[in-house]
Here is the input.
Amino acid sequence: MMFRNKKGGMFIVIIMAIMLFMVGMIAVNFLKAPITDARTDLDCANAAGITDGTKLLCLNIDIAMVYFIILVMSIAGGAILDRVVL
Here is the structure.
């Protein structure tokens, strides 16, 4: 990162990481509608009437939100750890 001097750089990195986390959590709201639409179109609620491939696709669509949240937390945490460790 570009902030390699004193404690002020650490403060700026923490503020940027918090801002990144907040923006990421706001973006989650924009992902809810397409995920719900995809689940409805694939008929994921009808487990007995769909094929195994469709069931696997439904699972992948369900876990997309979790992966996105983990990605945002990893990037924000990585920015802080980069400043603390290095």
In short: The chain has a mean pLDDT of 84. The first helix runs from residue 7 to 42. DSSP finds two helices and no strands in the chain. Residues 7-85 form one domain.
